[in-house]
Amino acid sequence: METLQLNQVIHLKGDIAPVVATAIHDGHFMREALIPHCGLTEDERLREEDPFTAQMIELFPTTIVGLRSRFELDLNRSPEKAIYRVPEDAWGLNVWKEPLTEEQLKESRAMYDLAFNEMQPFFQACIDHYGSVIVLDCHSYNHMRDGADASPADPEGNPEINLGTKNMNREHWAPVVETLIRTFSSHEINGKQLDVRENIKFKGGYFSEWLYHHFGDAVCPVAIEFKKTFMDEWTGVLHEQHHRELSDLLLSTLPILTALQQELNTRV
């Protein structure tokens, strides 16, 4: 197995900060040795990844972006589930033409471990310096699974923005969550007020669970899921104005969250 470098797995930009934005599912790259064994086309992989989420957070001073496809290793799943093995792991998709070898699995696991081994001291340093850290864990999700020409998923269970807050001290960090909901909900895109709700479609995945497990009340991990109305999830074409408005809206929360972090820090 080749010697791994961190910049092959995640890109950590900026210094320690009180607010960190992440896009761990943005990655599309898969190592060349695995591609012949993959049962999915590049377009099929892209459809289940979170394209353009890295661009959504790129103006934040401190960001962490996943560089690898979730089909190679999934940073939002636990170590034992991080590499998809059977269709049930991946929405019924046949990710591999044949089972991966132990050597292939070992290399993917090593990449996964490398990412978390780097992120743990980074977040600890943020907490040591600032007392706590707010993590905006940004993702996107599909709502046109029945096909490009089919009806979209029922909006009742699929808000434009879903905040997952299961993995935090919700009572302590309530001002952060309520600020995000209020700020996002007050915005209109394409003449429609954004539908923003909490723990409807998703409650937060392993990454936010990992953060809370290691750092407890000193971390506020908010899993933010944007419905893929900012793009065509079947062609991969970006709706640039829609995406830009969401990006600007997300960035507009930074000074508010930074002030809240300082205010709430004394209560942790």
Describe the structure.
This protein starts with 9 loop residues before the first strand and ends with a helix. The chain is 32% helix and 16% strand. It has a single domain, classed as 3-Layer(aba) Sandwich (Aminopeptidase).
Summary keywords:
seven-stranded mixed beta sheet; Aminopeptidase; alpha/beta; single chain; 9 strands; two-stranded antiparallel sheet; 268 residues
Write a concise synopsis of the structure shown.
The chain has helices at residues 42-48, 53-56, 102-130, 174-185, 206-215, 240-252, 254-265; strands spanning 10-13, 19-23, 63-66, 133-141, 161-164, 188-189, 192-193, 196-198, 219-227. It has 268 residues and is of the alpha/beta class.
Query: Which topology does CATH recognise?
Result: Aminopeptidase
**In the CATH hierarchy, what is the class?**
Alpha Beta
Annotation field: number of helices:
7
Describe the strand arrangement of the main beta sheet, using strand numbers.
Answer: 1-3-2-4-9-5-8
The CATH architecture can be given as: 3-Layer(aba) Sandwich
Uncertain spans, ≥5 residues at pLDDT below 50? none
Instruction: Compute the CA-based radius of gyration.
Output: 18 Å
Largest sheet: 7 strands, mixed
* Structural class computed from helices and strand pairing: alpha/beta
Q: Could you give the count of β-strands?
A: 9
Fraction of residues in helix: 25-40%
Into how many domains do the coordinates divide?
Answer: 1
CATH superfamily: Zn-dependent exopeptidases
SSE succession: EEHHEHEEHEEEHEHH
> How would you state the average pLDDT, rounded?
95
Shape: globular
Which percent range describes the beta-strand content? 15-25%
Q: What gap, in angstroms, lies between the N and C termini?
A: 43 Å
